From TrEMBL:
Protein name: ABC transporter permease
Keyword Transmembrane helix (UniProt): yes
Any Pfam family: BPD_transp_1
Membrane topology: Multi-pass membrane protein
Domain ABC transmembrane type-1: 58-260
Amino acid sequence: MKNSSSRPLYLIPYYLWIALFVIAPIALIAYYSFFDLAGDFTLANYRNFFSSVYLQLTLSSFWYAFLITVFSLLVAYPAAYWLTKAKHKQLWLLLIIVPSWINLLLKAYAYIGIFGLYGPANKLLEVLGIGKQQILFTDFSFIFVSVYIFIPFMILPIFNSLDKLNPALIDASRDLGASSWMTFRRVIFPLAINGVKSGVQAVFIPALSLFVITRLIAGNKVITLGTAIEQQFLVTQNWGMGSTIAVFLILFMIIIMMLTGPRDKGGAAHGKIK
């Protein structure tokens, strides 16, 4: 039998990593949030955050993150379900994962070319008789590109949950007279809900802090919490306000993780057909 007292030794690198790259940065952000531009201690940054400007910015960030998550889910769930039935599902899954390996800037610049006035998207509109449209620097282009980027992170957890489903449960549902819709609603979806929650986490949380896409695709017409943090640190040099926004962003992320965390309750996974 191995000596259990030696186990903590293996955890030392993990604890060091957490301390240096998670706890320390958060502590620094919290520390700087209490200082103004002159370096004086103040609580004004927190008071300013609850002003109408930053509250509206927060609501806007949540709204765009919600839209990106919903559209990603609407595309990813059917795709993940189809993948579980596909003959060469591992190959198809690889083709979905590969684009996520490409640098974000490269994908953003690619869509600048696609959605540009002389890009393929406007060429198609001309062929259809609609004429050239300003597709770039709009809410549509921002949400479309964001959904494209986050789709793999929504598909993977949902696919893993659906792929682990016991086919006997679905067959039993149909043998008991349930329709396809009822089988999905009462059996498939409840059993794969943890995959949906993981996908929502993987999409909603980073969507709150987007700033590269807002710059390149939305042309700063879409302002998120991530964009505000970038402006405070790099443009106005107000590290205190930027840190304050980051503190609230971290709090929002923690709350979302708590709300969407998996909750396995043993027998609760057995769907009931009514």
